[in-house]
Amino acid sequence: MYKTKAYTAASATSSLASDTIARRDPTEQDVQIEILFCGICHSDVHSVRNEWSEFLPTTYPIVPGHEIVGRVTKVGSAVTKYKLGDLAAIGCLVDSDGTCPNCKAGLENFCPNQVLTFNSPDKHKTAPVTYGGYSDSIVVDERFVLRIPPNLDLAGTAPLLCAGITTYSPMRHWGVTEGKKVGIVGLGGLGHMGVKFARAFGAHVVVFTTSPDKKEDALRLGADEVVVSRNADEMQKHAGSFDFILDTVSAKHDINAYLNLLGRDGNITLVGAPPKPLEVAAFSLIVARRSLSGSNIGGIPETQEMLDFCGKHNITADVEVIPIQKVNEAYNRLLKSDVKYRFVIDMASLKSE
């Protein structure tokens, strides 16, 4: 066991502050990584403030962060995929049972015994729960370590480990390919990645936003068209024409307005998580055999596939890099949507603490 610097929150009302935490020494199958950058996900804020207490209560102190990129500093004796100095990444998962049907299918994100990167029971007993990426270093089983294509900017790569795979996975599942018409609802951290992926898959991309001033940026990111969703005439022009729509909005909204834009056998996948149930009109689905589904991140094989795809197409997130000393300010700004489009912490700033 060794000690390392981190930023922790002591309670739901505490600010994140400099601290020291324990990490396990690498076992024979572990990789130790010096963390270079860590993205800030909205789920970090929810967890720090215990806003998911009904289904995922927070154990304090908490060290958030599951969008991790870094460099390998130690490897266990049984590690075969990584060596000292390699660039590596960690996403939302650090373990699973490896034996259930989901794990055997490469879908560890659906494993009933999955271990999240932070705030999950720590089977190694180094601490009561796992500690995330707002830290100098992390130790993870080789099976959950990912390769980073060498051409990608590291800061922009960090959000791919959550925002990237969350938007890539449903597009792959529902067959987004060249010639398909794809809608992206919302242009935030998830939405901007959805635009980039849909464009790279060769789809015709339409962004739906409530903010007319986002049109220019949506086009810059790769959208072919931008629709202001409050304009009924603009919406009606696209009725019954979409193959797939990715809904990234976490606020209350009219899902039927988007269901009615789908063609026959079209699908809407939710990756945003509104706090209250959405009302779905049965006829919005029945009339054209439409479907409504949800998706969360992806398994380890698909996450590696996504990173390799990003390397091939030179895709990274649009980020604002901050020192860790500004993390509490970033949380407040994130709640106001005051970022284009993801905050990423330069972990070198932690060395000055």
How would you describe this structure to a colleague?
The structure is a single chain. The protein starts with a strand and ends in a 7-residue tail after the last strand. The strands form 4 sheets. Strands 3, 4, 5, 8, 9, 16 and 17 form a 7-stranded mixed β-sheet that branches. A 6-stranded parallel β-sheet has the order 12-11-10-13-14-15, covered by helices on one side. Helix 4 crosses helix 10 (300-313). The protein has helices at 42-48, 101-104, 154-157, 163-173, 189-200, 215-221, 232-236, 255-259, 282-286, 300-313, 327-335, and strands at residues 2-8, 17-23, 30-39, 68-75, 87-90, 93-95, 115-116, 137-141, 146-147, 181-185, 204-209, 225-228, 242-247, 262-270, 291-294, 319-323, 342-346. With 353 residues, it is an alpha/beta fold. 45% of the residues are buried. The longest helix is centred in the C-terminal third of the chain and has 14 residues, at 300-313. The mean pLDDT is 96. The chain is globular and about 60 Å long. It folds into 2 domains: 2-162 and 318-352, Medium-chain alcohol dehydrogenases, catalytic domain (Quinone Oxidoreductase, Chain A, domain 1, Alpha-Beta Complex), CATH 3.90.180.10; 163-294, NAD(P)-binding Rossmann-like Domain (Rossmann fold).
The total domain count is: 2
User: What number is the mean pLDDT?
Assistant: 96
Which residues sit in consecutive blocks of at least 5 with pLDDT less than 50? none
Looking at the structure, what is the overall shape? Answer: globular
Q: Strand share of the residues?
A: 25-35%
Radius of gyration, taken over Cα atoms and rounded to an integer in Å? 20 Å
